[in-house]
Amino acid sequence: MREKKFSNTERKAVKRKWREEKLLAQMKKDRQLRLEKEAKTKEEEEEKIKRSRCGRHYTVAIALPGSILDNAQSMELRAYLAGQVARAAAIFNVDEIVIFDETSQAKQDPSEFSGLKKPGHGNTQLFHILQYLECPQYLRKMFFPYHQDLKYAGLLNPLDIPHHLRESDFCEYREGVTLNKPISAKKEKGSYANVGLKKDVILNMNIKPGQRVTVRLKEQDTDKKNLAGVVVSPTEPRETAGIYWGYTVRVASCLSEVFTESPHEGGYDLAIGTSERGRNVEHTEISQFQHAVVVFGGLKGLEASLEADSNIQSDDPSELFQHYVNICPGQGSRTIRTEEAILIAMSSLAPKLKAVH
Ligand SMILES: C[S@@+](CC[C@H](N)C(=O)[O-])C[C@H]1O[C@@H](n2cnc3c(N)ncnc32)[C@H](O)[C@@H]1O
């Protein structure tokens, strides 16, 4: 049979039709993709709103002098005391611990960590132990080389906070350390991190090895060799899911630096001082705040810190705070120790701080 010959006009018409069909198919595909993208964005936004409703948007800090360790009689007791401060902070969801030098004469650099083989003085040792205890167990070897200050830290009671996860625990977020492991050439960017699971996680960005990161895991049950995760701010678990994510620690060289070096833009908008000479905490009414700090004194009380601080003109601690509270009116013992005061104060204050949000 002879093939039918098409005229030029017919050929052009077929071609035009074919082009139109191709264009229509492409338009349909584009529309589908656009709709899918819009639906995904909407879903993500709704999820964000939903999650932000159960998040916690305020922070609570405590401040205390590291000199409290210097009154302990042995290295074991020094470590135990630091452990008590860490446990109290964890129990009450404290987000930041500020260690201040009540003598305003700090000489040691708290970031100095390796090489110093003798016990640090109170501020430094408290700084080291608090950081050690906050760090998830599976990351400690990476971040804490041997140091005399930490000699008994491994024996201390664990904090058992939500980001101290076992391999078998499921959590959307995990703390991790970036690894010195090259990623596949097919990927444009990314780094590997160990987040305490059998499989490493491929992160969405390049980060130099040895950095501590907070990771939101994309999928956890997968047959793939590696997991995928997104690096997020360490505040995200608290702000979006209301999960307590441990505390940060900083050292202030004097009492005034507790306030002037606040990590929050605009500083703390609520400062509470504690003393047996304060006002009964039960009569204290807290108003709305964003970032609170509760300040404790050492053996000689907050007066000693004020006296040593040349930046503070007043010698009356109550002038420094919105509230100056007595947390245990009618106390039986003549003195309440700072580590005890943290527990007592936070058990009265925490519900008040929460109630205004
Ligand atoms: C050993 S006490 C200091 C006692 C010191 N003699 C004084 O007069 O303040 C250490 C810290 O615990 C806290 N504290 C002790 N008893 C308290 C109380 N009844 N109310 C509030 N805070 C108290 C304060 O922060 C105090 O600076």
Automatic annotation (TrEMBL):
Coiled coil residues, start to end: 25-52
Gene3D superfamilies attached to this UniProt entry: 3.40.1280.10, Nucleic acid-binding proteins
GO molecular function: miRNA binding
Any one annotated GO CC term: kinetochore
PANTHER family: CLASS IV SAM-BINDING METHYLTRANSFERASE-RELATED (PTHR12150), METHYLTRANSFERASE C9ORF114-RELATED (PTHR12150:SF13)
A Pfam family it matches: Methyltrn_RNA_3
Keyword annotations: Coiled coil
Stated family: Belongs to the class IV-like SAM-binding methyltransferase superfamily.
Superkingdom as given in the UniProt entry: Eukaryota
Entry keyword Coiled coil: yes
Name recorded for this polypeptide: SPOUT domain containing methyltransferase 1
Keyword set includes Ribonucleoprotein: no
UniProt-listed SUPFAM superfamilies: alpha/beta knot, Nucleic acid-binding proteins
GO BP term, example: miRNA processing
